[in-house]
Amino acid sequence: MEFPIWASKRWAFLLNVARSQNSQMRAVAGIVQSWGWRRVAVIYEEVTLTTARIFPHLIDALRKINSEVEILLPIPSFPSDNSLIESLEKLKRSQCRVFIVHTSLHLASSIFMEAKNLGMVDKGFVWIATTRITNQIESLNSSMISSMQGLIGIKSYFSHMGKSYQEFHSRFRTLFSKLYPNESNLEPGIFALQAYDGAWALAQAMYGTTNRKVEENLKNHVPIISKSGKWLLDRILQSSFKGLTGDFSFVDGYLVPVNIFRLINVVGKSYRELGFWSEGLGFSKGITKGSNYNKSMILMGNVSWPGGPRSAPMGWKVPTNPIPLKIGVPASSTFREFVNVVDNGSGNEPQVHGFSMDVFKAVRELLPYDMPCEFIPVKGSYDSLIETVQNRTFDAVVGDTSILSYRFKYAEFSQPYSEPGLRILVYNNRRRPPRAWLFKKPFSTLLWVSTGVVNLYNGFVVLVIERNHNQHLRGSVLNQIGIMIWLAFTTLFRSNGDNLHSNLSRMAMVVWLFVALVITSSYIASLTSLLTLGQQTSINVETLKSSNAKVGCDANSYIGKYLEDVLVFKPANIKNISTSEEYHQALMRKEIAAAFLEIPYVKVFLAKHCDGFSTLSQTFKVGGFGFVCTLLYPYHQYFLKF
Predict the structure, then answer these.
(1) I want to staple 116 with a disulfide (CB 3.0 to 4.6 A). Which of 121, 187, 522, 640 is the partner?
(2) Three-state DSSP class for 558?
(3) Alpha carbons 541 and 265: distance in angstroms, whole number
(4) pLDDT grade for 226, boundaries at 50, 70 and 90
């Protein structure tokens, strides 16, 4: 056991060769994180300040995984039966069901015996024990073990494979069996190994630095030289060797901490090995070179929990008469189809409707317990509403709240229940001509007239040149006008080269056929575009910024900041809009050139206003809508699965 810091200052030659307990607190936090428990209770022995020194490390480790210590329960080393029962009953009345026990083995035995009598080592409870208990668990009898069923323990690790350990193990069993012939357990515990390492460090400091020289001098009882205590202390602090419990060396006067622990699960008359936890790596089934590590111990296999279930306990108790959860909802949602707050007059609770509320109610019906809620409308921005979850004003937020990375420092989000993304909404007031006259749209009126005039002129030129070579091109004026028009338009669809006799007419026809080919190709391309794609706008982010156009966005959302910081719009060109109808009017009146809306809003808007409004294909990646709840919320792991 570690001694207090002040002890080393009072006694200069007092040296602590016990390993630090701080790193195992991170192992405890890793277990808590694996199962998503957000609140724990700590039972500790009220004996010295040494025990309390671990709490800052435990609290810090839990805080990093978004969990907290809800209850600190100190218990005297030798409590009376009544006081122990009273303390455990107080613990049982709380909602927390995850108990971390950090006491001596003697006190832990009393705690588990009384807890079993009170029905606390049963289904729904979780017990986690530290090395102070598990390092001596082999010394417990069967009745004590039966009261710890389902316990998860963190046990000190040391290698059984080394030659030094094998030699020590053989000598220890031989000597121990002679001294205690009636003792059935002959295995050396971690304390025996620590004592041996400490004695070996002292022997090295007194008799030499190499193992061989130490053994020779120990047999002859010949110290190297008699020096002062300060000299001996300095030599011990300079020790560096591979001990039975791991690397034995000192840093700033303290023995280097271990970074590997064993995980055990009490089952039946003994316990079984679950695996290992390694500092910086996580959980694993083994610690060999090719072992796979994971931050969650779930992959290590099934755990036998108190009461026998294979499924992990929730870690908290559902209250029989739960207090309704205070849930904040946005009072001024831009699109009331998602959240619509209806005020029923003074003194009456407002009614909240909309798609977001319907989704939440459907999720609540799927939960395996009753979850009464009180919906409280809140005015202001969505960011300020989410921050109220962090400061415990509300237990959760339900509404059209977007999932954004920076908001995770305030709260946790559920899975998105809407399509993610941000799009540009525009209005085009140009009306599409009637479909029967759509063929005229690819060319302007002037181009149509010019094409017709040039076509007739080409027919007239060919007629004048060829009439001297072809008697069919002669006749009355009316007949020649008809032939001219015929020649002018047939050249658009077929070549008349075989019927022409003059090279001049052939040259005129070649030039016209080239022009006709260009005109025909352009016409077909333009008409196809009109028929398939419609009237696509050329608006995009760059054109909006270069033209200094005004754009609209929700007044209470993050989009205004997104337009400034990410898309680099000028703040003066960003107009805040509060209602969906205001978007409609602002776009039609050209008060804004475009609106930036999230995809669910765009779909609702276009369903109501489809004539003349359209959205661009470009999508900006942002999170969809999700529910919000505090990281320490007891329903957290179930609430956020949906």
Answers:
(1) 121
(2) coil
(3) 60
(4) very low
What backbone phi and psi angles, to 5 degrees, belong to 375? Answer: -90, 125
Angle between helices 190-207 and 163-179 (to 10 degrees): 110
Q: Which residues contact 337 (CB under 8 A, 6 or more apart)?
A: 354, 355, 604
User: What six digits make up the tokens of 110?
Assistant: 């009393």
CA-based nearest residue to 109, from 126, 84, 89: 84
* Euclidean distance between CA atoms 527 and 441, whole angstroms: 8
For residue range 17-59, what is the model confidence (pLDDT) as tens digits? 777 777 889 999 999 999 888 889 999 888 755 566 677 888 8
Token pair, residue 17, equals 């060769």
**For 226, how many CA atoms within 13 A lie in the half-sphere containing its CB?**
1
Distance of CA 609 to the CA centre of its chain: 37
Q: Are 240 and 250 in contact (CB under 8 A)?
A: no
d(CA 46, CA 87) in angstroms, rounded, equals 13
Residue type, 340: N
| DSSP per residue, 283-311 | EES--STT---BS-GGGG-----TTS-SS
Amino acid identity of residue 359, one-letter, is V
Half-sphere exposure of 377 (CA within 13 A, CB side): 16
User: 3-class SS at 65?
Assistant: coil
Instruction: Please give the Cα distance from 280 to 30 (Å, whole number).
Output: 11
* Contact status, residue 100 vs residue 42, Cβ threshold 8 Å: yes
Q: How many CA atoms lie within 13 A of 538 on its CB side?
A: 2
Query: Diameter of the chain by CA atoms?
Result: 147
Q: Against a cut of 0.85, is the pTM above it?
A: no
* Helix 81-93 × helix 105-117 angle, to 10°: 60
Name the helix (H) or strand (E) containing 576: strand 574-577
Q: With beta carbons less than 8 A apart as the criterion, state whether 629 and 412 touch.
A: yes
